[in-house]
Fold these 3 entries.
Entry 1:
Amino acid sequence: MAILADEHMTEEPRGGRGNLFSNVANAIGLSGGRGLLRSVGLENLTRIRTSALARRIITFNLIALCILLVGMLYLNQFKGGLVVEKQSSMVIESELYTNVIEARLFDENTTNRGLIEGLPVSEGLIARVYLPDESIAVQLNGASVDLATGSGFIAWLGGVLDVLPGLRTVSGQTAPMSEQFFASEMAKAAFSGQESIRRSNTQAGETVLAVSRPIMVDGSIAAAMVLTSQPGYLDGLLAAEQQSVLRLFLLAVVVSIVLSVALANTIANPIHDLARAAEAGTTKEGRQDDATRVRIPDLSGRPDEIGRLSRAMRDMTSALYDRIDTNEEFAADVAHEIKNPLASLRSAVETLRIAPEGDGRVRLLDVIEHDVRRLDRLVSDISNASRLDAELVKEEEEVFDLTLMLSRIAEFHTHEANDKEVELIWDEPDTPIMFDGMEARLAQVFVNLISNAISFCGQGDAVRVWAREKDNRVLIVVEDTGPGIPEEALTKVFKRFYSERPEHDYGNNSGLGLSISKQIVEAHKGVIWAENIHARDAEDGDAPLGARFVVGLPV
């Protein structure tokens, strides 16, 4: 039998894959410069380069992609699946060849070439028929296909990954040997009556897969059919799959960077603007638009945490400026209030130097003593008022019996009222009222209101205190039968240092009591107001029957 020369079945190579990534790159704007970046409005990357948060977002996303890539290449089932699939197809193909050859061997006129003439050999395979003397009766080669067609960066990256063990090669089951020698070894196994499926590696590290079957004629082995893969064909399939994964990875990298930049623009840039606005308060350049106010960007329309942060910063800034304005007004009021007793003291001291001994010097000393006490009381009240905000924030609220607290306060002020021959009436509610708040601070409010009412009353007047719970609110009312409050003063009584006192009582109050009371009530999210008591049939201009202070607190 003649030995056939190598014959290559014609099949168009699967080239052209190398241009896949370049086509994708062109489509997404990589080769065109910044096309994709312009399409999403991110051409200005200066802020991204200077933003640590943006760089962190991009880095973490790329690290996650790299871990995913390595995991895919290490853990995917392609290598094992490819070997099993190729083995199955080679077993079926070798069985077909064996059946055809066994049928043709009954024809004595069949030549060696005719044994497998017309049989298709799949690409990347080599079909051989061995005679009992281990010589090759006929050999037919399938088309050689170079699947590893990657170029440029893809090929370079694939080469880098090949350094990692186990990413491409399939280990053989036998010692490294040439493909021809491996095929002859498989033929020997077939002549022993065995059907074998094995794989090996060549000295160059290429994987070879082989299937051998005995060819039976009249119950005896007449030849051996050996089907092997071309050296490097299986590795080429793996390399092609790896390059497909790399192309997908590069596309994912580009998309991840673009999305990371877009995410950084929606997160890092607004935070940068908020931080710059907050820092502007410490520099003159940051307040060029308004020398007295720092403008926080209004991002409150965003339905996320940055929108909440913007609203919180704007509210905080507004509250801070309100506090600054309040402190400035408070300082001005304090200066004004202190000047009056100081002026009186100065005048009294200067007069004392030249006053003769007698009643005149005693009266001057009384004036000095009164002004000193007034200053001491004023400084104490100012100190308490200035610390009130900080103390209200620190103190904790707790549930207490509001009825019991008012009862004790009323009982305490009964002696003060009796000394002025004023009747103090405590109208206790039918059921106790429990309230969640700062008991000591609210007690300060009602002590102030009751004391204030008693101080305006004279002999025969009365002060009535009552409390009721209605519609999720508690109303506490302190009313008296005194002279009432001038109509023009109803809106002023809660202002700092305002005092509407009789002349004989001038200087005995700092004018901060009602202001402090209002501050405490508002800290409990309540309201307080003053009004005059009029008869039902009273006309405009009629004198009031007394004054009433109402405190409303939410339950």
Entry 2:
Amino acid sequence: MPRKSLLASAAAVAAALALALSGCAGGATADSAASSTPRAGGSLTIGIDNWCGAYDKQQTSGCTFSNIQVTDNLVDQDPETGKVVPWLATSWKVSDDAKTYTFTLRKGVTFSNGEAFDAQAVKENFDAVIALGKQGNAFQSSAYLLGYTGSTVIDPQHVAVSFSQPKAGFLQSLSEAPLGIVSPSTTKETAAERANGVVGSGPFVISKLEQGKQIVLTKRKDYDWGSSVRGNTGAAYLSKLTFLVIPEASARIGALTSGQVDAISYPSSNDIAEVKSSSNVFSAASAGVVYTLYPNTSDPLLAQEPVRQAIQRSIDRDEIKQVTLDDTGKAATNIVSSTFPGWTDLSSHLTDSKAAVKKILQGAGWSKGSDGIWAKDGQRLSTNLQYSDANDKQQFELIQQQLKANGIEVRLEQLTAAQLSANQDTGDWGLQYGNLTRPDPDVFLSAFTSDFASRIKQDADPSLVALIKQQSAESDTAKRTKLSQEIQERIVDEGLGFPIHEATSVIATSKDVHGVRFTAPWWAYFGSAWKDGQ
């Protein structure tokens, strides 16, 4: 999901670090080729960039770092191959019309409060997601269950989940954090109660949650049903995880290099060299929609396809990579990342070209004004780019310069996250920035249709939306991939999103921790991690 950074005062950072001292024991390293033998014991403190709001993943896009350590899923997705593999569900059958999925569930699984994991628990989870969605509290998870008509408990180990239409992306969606399975008692709680912490069947249990400050998880000793692609199917090696909120990147780096924390998320690009000199840096590209400038297609100017096409061909993505990103970053080659299933290289469609921009705009009746900005019928080709994260300013200033060199004016407006959201509601915006992580073509439903993307008030191209919905119902994998690739190309060519660079999850650690894995979307998983000398 989109990453947002918040700035904190020095006093707030100091207070946060003080909270961590009791749970911090040395440093950490995330590595896939571990240099030591796994051993049990020890704790890990991870400095994260922002508080995530409600802890319940079924009703928030945040908290994924910590939440995936607490909840398990029916299936998992292999980050190397993209293949969906068994987890809490050991097998499944799909009806010929792809409307009903029947699952065989793993025996012997329990939630951390002792409740049994069974078919009834699965049914109650899905029913609860729908109920939360109707309350407006489960935007992402309820979108995954679009068309859900109910679950039938066949017996404790078998459940049939049905939809009103073919649901080609359902299996993959079951591997996503928003559909992590929580206990029956959790499903009966109110949305507000669930926001204070959920009970899952995962390798860690919530032991402390301080709003805006930290989340402390402790090991579940009897855990032995982990995913086969996460490096450890048994109980976690580490005894405790502390996720400590340290909003400012420089403060997180200082905490890591001084040994006050073991690992940090999202060190700034400008500081990667410093971090690498004393720590290890590991990254995973997000499989989904890359960091993108989204145009407001309800705006009369940006509703014009030639204008959007001209903006698309004015952006020099390679220069953005060279100037503003470190070596963990990658320039966009499509609206989706190169790790996305069915990705195709559309670099040639995204190459910046003054000649192409001139041809597009002149063909649509635009002409250069005396100030060098294109104009038509008395209107200058001018819009705004609204953002909240100060860390993005350098990148946006460069994009502003690139567009100006092509006769397009962009005004930069730094606002609060709340103001950005409010402007989406009123339509008072031109360009906004974000990404969306999901390694499945149904990500296009969430990002580019008015049914699910809150920024879209009216679909710019109904035929494209029909194509997106068609792929969602296509059960033939090859046909669905072909539809997905056509969608990718149309989004790029119609300028419905201006891809900038691939989203990357970055973890920096000290030298004595090993075995941190990344999930298929891009989240760091600590159930397989251990520390030297414990």
Entry 3:
Amino acid sequence: MGHTEPSDNFISAQAGAAEAPLFVLSFRHRDELASAVSLAGWHAIAARRADNAEQRFLASSAMMAVVDARGAFDDGLAAVRSLADAVEINAASLLVLVSRTDVDRLDELFAAGATHYLASPFKDQELLQTLRFAERHAVRLAGGLRAIERRREIDVDGVLAWQANFQTGRATVSEALRRRLGIASRDIGMFALLDRLKNRDRRAGRMAIRRIFGDGRPTAFTHMLADSGNGEERVAQHLRLDRARGLLFGTIERLDHDSAALARGGRDALTGLRDAAAARRWIEVRLGGGKFYVLLFHITRFEMINAAFGRDTGDALLQSIARQIGPLVSELGGKRSIVARTAGAEFIIGIEGAVEPERVVLLAEQLAAQVERPQLTGAHLIALSSRVGIIENHGDDESVSDLLRRASAALAEAKVSADGRVLMVSHEKHENAARDQALQADLRGALDRDEIDILFQPQVSIATGKVVGVEALARWRHPEHGELGATTLFAVAEQSDYLQALSAHIQQRATRLAANWPKTLANLRMSVNVTAGDIGLKDFAANFLAMVDASGFPRRRLTVEITESGLIRDLAPAATLLADLRAGGCRVAIDDFGTGYSSLAYLKALPLDYLKIDSKLAQDITGSTRDRIVVRGVIDMARALGLAVIAEGVETEEQLTLLAREGCNYYQGFLCSEAVTTSGLERLVAEWAVN
């Protein structure tokens, strides 16, 4: 049976069943928009700020990006420009939502890189339909449907394709494929098709099938395809899944892999270099084979050149750059290397063979240095700058899209790096970054699934040796990575733009837990943290106090802590907020004191009850004479201002003895206990009361 184009129902079912990721950037309507697309079956990875949008889109693995420019057209236009290269290189689509009054500026959006738009006001169904069109566009670009259109040109008898019912395990092959394979029947077992492949190709096919059943996203692998005449050629097998109908589709694309065939087409009209499709084919042929490198070479702020000197000058510059970088690449990579123009002022370079990473980095530096020499174009002498992201293929089970997404992420990191213009991302670094980005996507679900626990770290009076209070600390019970501490949790929350939601969740959960403590803990104080983002919220103090009252925990036993680093840009609002909280009956403290640069200004300007010395500063008490003098000075200054002093991170008796000698009032740290549950806290308080 031949391939048929997927219906809207198929697109929707596929997105819902596979929970396909969708990157959403909305400056004013993030939560509402994320909720709408989530209900439609996509896994929304949403952001409110445009910072690092390119990196966050790439990390999301989404085939589509949505930029919500309603009421913020210029911000949206800037975001589209920042995402455009990554969207084009990775065969994605970019939908922009605009206000009706901005429709006359659509040309600017499409020139910047948008592929679709929707003007408000619109209904959820209109948004869903537009998303379906955008997804279909991305599927075509990724090769699934476009490959079929090309295939009609190379197989005049019809399409080489098959579809399998993965519940029965039976497959139906197209008539063209039946003739090509020389088999009698069009009905065949799905794995019997795989058994016709050579050993290495068979393994690649099984891994591709495992991949697509894992995440539902279209994928591909390359293999040799035999025919009834005993000939064979290398082809790409494109797979896509329809979970709703229980079908797996395979379509076969012929690959030109000899230099003569490559020279016949796939050229960029402006520069004469290979085009993006040729670059993808070059990579696909080499997947599962030997070692190779992919470099993404980006001329920065090139749109300014077009704006200042005109597009003719910009085009002439690109042609000149193409002539310069080709010979440098050929010198290192030889005839089997590739240079292609992929998007605007961006080039993709492939280097094949046993080349050392250092030589590839050196090539990238040479390319950048060559381009950054003043370029003479007509009457203009123009200075350019560039960035290069590099990855190495490790022989892992990756698709072309996976590999290009890694390369795009390396380039995005190079663009914001202060360490140089060339960045090679190691496999280990990529895995760590992928884990962090996956955690960002998981965080919103973690709040909904109640995976964030609250533990309590005891605070001990140095004078009496009794536990007098606790600090509420968050822990993430991640189903894959186990327990993750507050440092990781808050870093992920800040990167994923869910810091305020997480902060509110922790504050509410901690006060509710503490309100239900047993009588043995009824005299303990509790500290909760307030973030810099909380400070800027309208009516935060009133809402916070109302939340505390609703929990049943007494205000008089609550201390609000704000980190010193969170105060650097918000000193005046912080002073107002803390004064309101103190007036409401809470006590307030600066946390991690000694880590910032404006400590004295904070002590002068803020209404405080406690000063918490950062653990590194507290541990310095056992260091040199100079270290002890600094710690002593902080404690003396706090006490002179009438503030109680709490030392964090106390781990040894020596540290405690010296802190006590200098006049510290309270401490917390492993010397007493790690953070514990309510039941663990109850046992600890009982033990310390006896001692």
